[in-house]
Specification:
46% helix, 344 residues, 13 helices, 3-stranded antiparallel sheet, alpha+beta, 5-stranded antiparallel sheet, elongated
Length: 344
Amino acid sequence: MADQHSNPISTLPHFSMKLELARPISSLLLRIALQLPLLVAVVLIGQFVGIPSGVSALIAVVGWIACIWLLSLRKLLGLAAILVAISAIVYFFHQPSNDRDWRPEVARLPRSIIEGDTLRVENLRDFRWDSQTEFEERWLQTVYDLRTLEQLDAIVVPFGDSDLAAHVMLSFGFADGRHLAVSIEARAEMGETYSLIGGAARQLELFYLFGTEADLLGLRILHRGDRVYSFPLDVDAGFAKELLLELSEAANQLNERPKFYATLRHNCTTSLLRHVNRISDQPLAFSREILFPAQLGKLLHQLDLIETDLDWPEAKEAFRVDETIRSAKDLTTAFSDALRSSRP
């Protein structure tokens, strides 16, 4: 009787045919997979030689397409390895510095001197802004009595119409009506602007800006047209004092040991979270609202950390302050009072 099972040898041509078809497909997939490290490497190298990130990305994409057709897979792997190695070298050997040609608005690092209950801040910024780029430079030396610290506000400034991305600051209020604003930012050089890629590529130093609300918030409200929310926090004066001292010490350390701004690890929100958690009995967990800080007010409201009995939609509207400032008639001496004039 004839054997009903197929001959294994007869299946070899079919297997070989499938293998031959799989090879070009796997080669193409590998070439496509190489695009990400190539893109990152070229953009990173471009940052260090002064090429804008958008131009670097375009060069990487066009170059990758050309390499797919012109280079063998082995040569493409070699090119990728070389570019990744170069980008890693320039990334890890590049060191932060305080000795650069800084933009004037971040030219001076603040320094705090603490003597008992007295805080003296040197290089506190109080610029008078005529537009987004025109200003009168004013650097002050101010003294605060920490025993009169009585208020702490969280300031949230969404980027444009975004409900996700935002800049976050703190403002410390004293009994004499003065408010000390603290903003953790990227320190840019002349001709340099902030970018997410620049922050990730170690192109910007970390900067703790101490200034007046008239400067930091006036610039954003009156000249950039930003939305600004100022949430009064339900915390005791002791916590606010400890947090201000923690931030002052961190700012002092940057005078001696500069650090890089990092888009994710050392940005305005994650840095403030780190400082808060160092002194808090109930540390805040990293959450979606921290990753997308335009939602920070909602998180604070959920945690009952805002001084209000309003529900969240009402509170969000009540503590929006940019429209109040734009409608104020006199901001020359009472900016902070006008900022809070419409609070419930």
